[in-house]
Design a protein that fits this description.
Elements lengths: L1 E8 L3 H10 L10 E3 L2 E5 L11 E6 L9 H5 L6 E3 L2 E4 L4 H13 L6 E5 L12 E5 L4 E6 L2 E6 L10 H8 L7 E4 L8 H6 L3 E6 L2 H13 L6 E5 L2 H4 L7 E6 L9 H7 E14 L5 H11 L3 E15 L2 E12 L1
Parallel strand pairs: 6-7, 11-12, 11-14, 12-13, 14-15
Antiparallel strand pairs: 1-3, 1-4, 2-3, 5-6, 7-8, 9-10, 15-17, 16-17
GO biological process, one term: tRNA N1-guanine methylation
GO molecular function, one term: tRNA methyltransferase activity
Protein name: SAM-dependent methyltransferase
Length: 327
């Protein structure tokens, strides 16, 4: 079967395999092939492979020896993977237990199984979890070459936004100053800093900021990240006119913080504004709110309107990339 693969000289194969594994890019459903002194390593997301690696399409064999949870259950269970953890969303405890047992008994490299035990709640957007397998709710997650440690019971983190975070990070240049108003454990600012940007990350969750500092150290960018545990509305005046780029990933209520965003914005600044709106007009409310906050001090240009994902029936999670240019 033809699948995307990274082609690499055999002597560099193990180092490249480890590099792809650290970025969680290896396609576990297919075998690594060897031919004419080259290794062909199947990858799950060819667009995310670092640009210095050679991606080709190759007929490689399916992995036949791996036992999956579906093989053991007789149906394909629904779960998310985050590092070496499987995240379930099952209302039936017996069904959750059966899925957890099947995950453990399969050949998947997963050591922890957690089941959602509550909705996201509170100002810090955390939820309760039932630990079905493993010791606790702390996990290590790798994303596009960066490593994050976090406790799912103490901080908010969505693995579903990995592609979106990578999209934004690829826009940065090393000379930029980036400000994340709701930074969490650093999934935006750590890759920003890895590209050479000077970053400020603010969050009201003290635990999230502790993990952000740890993640900055893990990824060798602590010298380029200032992590602040506070309400961004209190912090914004200290960074008046500072930012070239602002991330506003608080989609249910980002509009309440636009005045602070305008305070932090420099003379030419891009805001990545996340919103959740009805599918009939997913971008209009956000654009109108930004214009109301920024005009007439700034010229406002919407550069990108992007649907990130479906959020609920008839509701979309969207992003507007908006440039502010001071008049």
């Amino acid at each position: 079967m033809d699948v995307p693969c990274v082609r690499v000289d055999r002597e560099d194969g193990e180092a490249t395999r480890r590099r792809l594994a650290d970025a969680d890019l290896i396609d576990d459903d297919h075998e690594i092939a060897v031919e004419d002194g080259s290794l062909y390593i199947p990858v799950s997301d060819p667009d995310a492979v670092p640009g210095d690696l050679d991606v080709v399409t190759r007929d490689v064999p399916a992995r036949e020896t791996q036992t999956t949870p579906a093989d053991l259950l007789g149906y394909d269970p629904s779960y998310e993977r985050l590092g070496e953890a499987a995240l379930l969303d099952e209302d039936d405890p017996d069904r959750a237990r059966k899925i957890a047992d099947a995950i453990v008994d399969s050949d998947l490299p997963l050591e922890t199984v957690l089941n959602k035990a509550s909705k996201i709640k509170g100002e810090t957007r955390v939820r309760d979890w039932d630990v079905l397998v493993g010791d606790d709710t702390e996990v290590v997650h790798r994303e596009y070459g960066c490593e994050f440690v976090l406790d799912l019971a103490e901080v908010y983190f969505s693995p579903r936004l990995a592609t979106e975070r990578h999209r934004v990070a690829e826009q940065l240049t090393a000379s930029e100053r980036a400000f994340d108003m709701f930074a969490g454990v650093g999934p935006f600012v750590v890759p920003f800093a890895s590209r050479g940007a000077e970053c400020v990350g603010v969050d009201v969750n003290d635990t999230a900021i502790e993990y952000l500092r740890e993640n900055a150290r893990r990824n060798g960018v602590a010298d380029r990240i200032t992590a602040i545990a506070d309400d961004v509305r209190s912090v914004a005046p200290e960074y008046e006119g500072w930012a070239d780029r602002i991330v506003m990933n608080l989609p249910h209520s980002a509009d309440e913080f636009l005045e602070s965003a305008v305070t932090v914005a420099g003379d030419d600044c891009v805001i990545h504004y996340y919103d959740i709106q009805h599918e009939d007009d997913p971008f209009g409310p956000g654009e109108r709110a930004i214009r109301a906050a920024a005009e007439p001090a700034y010229d406002v240009t919407v550069e990108t309107e992007r649907v990130v994902r479906s959020y609920a029936p008839h509701e979309l999670n969207v992003c507007l990339d908006v440039r502010l240019e001071r008049r």
